[in-house]
Design goal:
The complex is a heterodimer of chains A (312) and B (230). Chain A has 312 residues and is an all-alpha fold. Helices cover 69% and strands 0% of the residues of chain A. Chain A has a domain at 2-210. The longest helix of chain A is centred in the middle third of the chain and has 27 residues, at 176-202. Chain B has a domain at 2-83 and 153-229: Rossmann fold, CATH 3.40.50. Helices cover 36% and strands 28% of the residues of chain B. Chain B has helices spanning 39-46, 72-75, 92-98, 107-117, 119-122, 134-147, 164-181, 192-198, 221-229; strands at 2-11, 14-24, 28-32, 52-59, 62-63, 77-80, 152-156, 184-189, 201-206, 209-215. In chain B, the strands form two sheets. A six-stranded mixed beta sheet of chain B has the order 6-7-8-3-9-10, with helices on both faces. Chain B has a four-stranded antiparallel beta sheet with strand order 2-1-4-5, with helices on one face. Classes of the chains: A mainly alpha (312), B alpha/beta (230).
Chain lengths: 312, 230
């Protein structure tokens, strides 16, 4: 039961990260390949504040999230107005720097020996891990709701406009650079919050947890589900993490000697799924958010009733 | 309106416009020239999408030489680029709304005016802009610019790629916009014949330099032909 709660909690973290990546990439077109870096700032920030400085867990999470926001803002100022490849490389480099610092700054982070123990809040309660999972569920549901509402909001339309044609959006009076910076910083800060909330799940923090595989897993989930649809991120996480990490790894009757192959088999399946999606359903399982319906003509146009308006 | 004093502009290290000076008054100011003459660069510079390498640009007496592009709509400038002039993933209504946050009129008032000029847009409101035909896309781009209630409208080759019949309609709409709204229009075009029908003054660019600047009445087709051959 405890393992199931742990797995579902971890899946919720992945869903939350995928939602935030949907906002960054699906709506605003910012290719963040440093998801694990911002999540890691939250994870280790919370861990260090809690273990080393004795800050209570919930304030530690909030402070670590603010730190991730601030660092993301600085990174955004440096790279966000460059092209997609530069942003991709810079965010990936950021995640690598975070991971390297965690290993090298042993006094603060414990280095490869790890940092712990981070206990669940509400330690007096017997069902504290379940309560924490519900807390996580509330946070992730809020992120899903925000992500769903965002597309049809003024800010959401602005983000889509910036993604489609930044120069045109700027010529319409939108401060595109500032909008992108703040959206990136806030969403990265929320990634940090999810990192902070992952700290009591792991209880003991080790640098291995900051491997790029988390970033890739979230990206794969987003691409599989459909980057243009906020529910695509959820479907993608269910198809990848839910199917393999929970259902197969926990419940499939795999003999012990073959179980060691499961992680590799999982990556193989991810690859096959990704190739099939890209070949047969490039917009993901759920496709795009809005159907492109051509409405019927109801009244004759004033001047163009007989005119061709097609390209000449 | 616009006062350009020896403006030099281009892309990075490359200079395209070379020390051009002109003023745009309350008129249709046409910019003619062959491919590569610098028409698009000029309009992007006026919209502040390209930085000035040197010179000075004033809008209604205010120095806008270092203004950011997002500040220009509030200053009264609307820009319609030649290509990629609609947001493909937004609906027609969303495209119109995103440009309509300046000016004094209410949104519905502005929409009514745009629909009066381009009735077809009203029938396509929920349709994504990416699925519009070339002509409809051009209407949407001009309509969205008018939603800004501009005092200066920058139009970059609006007739490019459109059928001749629609070009007639579009140019009528441009002239009507000038006449009824009193909007100054800077019109960059290759279609010299159509442009001369509605322009008040004409500037001809050649290889980034101003070849001539005259009132339409003082201009003959041979002047333009000569400029195109330089």
């Amino acid at each position: 039961m405890d393992y199931l709660i742990f797995s579902v909690s971890l899946m919720l973290v992945y869903i939350g990260l995928a939602q935030l990546l949907h906002i960054q990439f699906g709506l605003a077109g910012i290719p963040n390949f440093g998801v694990v870096g911002f999540w890691g700032i939250g994870l280790y920030g919370t861990g260090v504040l809690y273990v080393k400085a004795g800050v209570p867990l919930l304030p530690a999470m909030a402070m670590a999230s603010l730190l991730a926001t601030a660092l993301a803002y600085v990174l955004a100022r440096l790279v966000l107005q460059r092209n997609g490849q530069a942003i991709l490389a810079a965010t990936l480099a950021f995640a690598t720097i975070v991971s390297t610092l965690v290993v090298s700054e042993k006094d603060l982070t414990g280095g490869v020996q790890g940092l712990g123990t981070i206990r669940f809040p509400f330690s007096d309660l017997e069902q504290r891990n379940l309560i924490f999972m519900i807390m996580l569920l509330i946070v992730v549901c809020a992120l899903i709701w925000i992500s769903a509402k965002l597309r049809d909001s003024r800010l959401g339309r602005q983000l889509v406009a910036i993604r489609d044609n930044e120069e045109l959006a700027a010529s319409l009076g939108k401060n595109t650079a500032a909008t992108k910076r703040w959206v990136f910083a806030i969403t990265c800060g929320l990634m940090g919050l999810l990192g902070g909330m992952s700290a009591p799940l792991h209880q003991f923090l080790v640098p291995y947890q900051l491997s790029p595989s988390l970033t890739f897993a979230v990206w794969i989930a987003l691409v599989l589900g459909g980057k243009g649809h906020n529910l695509g991120a959820i479907v993608g996480v269910f198809v990848t993490f839910g199917l393999f990490d929970i259902l197969i790894e926990t419940y499939a009757p795999v003999p012990a000697e073959q179980a060691i192959l499961l992680p590799n088999f999982k990556l193989f399946c991810y690859g096959v799924l990704l190739v099939m999606i890209i070949m047969f359903r490039p917009l993901g399982i759920l496709g795009v958010d809005k159907p492109k319906v051509r409405s019927s003509t109801t009244t004759p146009p004033r001047e163009l009733s007989n005119a061709s308006v097609e390209k000449g | 309106m616009f006062d350009a004093d020896n403006i030099r502009s281009g892309y990075g290290e490359i200079t395209v416009l070379k020390d051009i000076s002109f003023s745009v008054n309350n008129e249709i100011f046409a910019v003619l020239g062959a491919n590569g003459s610098g028409k698009t660069t000029l309009l992007k510079t006026l919209a502040r999408l390209l930085p000035l390498q040197s010179g000075k640009l004033e809008l209604q007496g205010n120095d806008v030489s270092t203004a950011a592009p997002y500040q220009m709509p509030a200053a009264g400038v609307a820009y319609v680029p030649q290509e990629g002039n609609v947001f493909a993933d937004l609906s027609v209504m969303e495209n119109l709304s995103i440009g309509g946050r300046t000016g004094n009129k209410s949104k519905s008032e502005k929409l009514d005016e745009v629909f009066a000029l381009f009735p077809r847009l009203k029938e396509r409101l929920s349709q994504s802009a990416g699925s519009l035909s070339g002509g409809e896309g051009q209407m949407l781009a001009v309509g969205r610019a008018l939603m800004q209630e501009p005092s200066v409208l920058l139009l970059d080759e609006p007739s490019a790629g459109l059928s001749p019949l629609f070009v007639d309609t579009l140019f009528s709409s441009i002239a009507e916009t000038r006449r009824e709204r009193g909007v100054a229009i800077v019109l960059a075009e290759q279609n010299a014949v159509k442009t001369l029908e509605i322009a008040d003054r004409v500037m001809v660019l050649s290889l980034g330099e101003m070849h001539l600047l005259r009132k339409r009445s003082e201009l003959s087709m041979s002047d333009i032909t000569e400029a195109y051959h330089i």
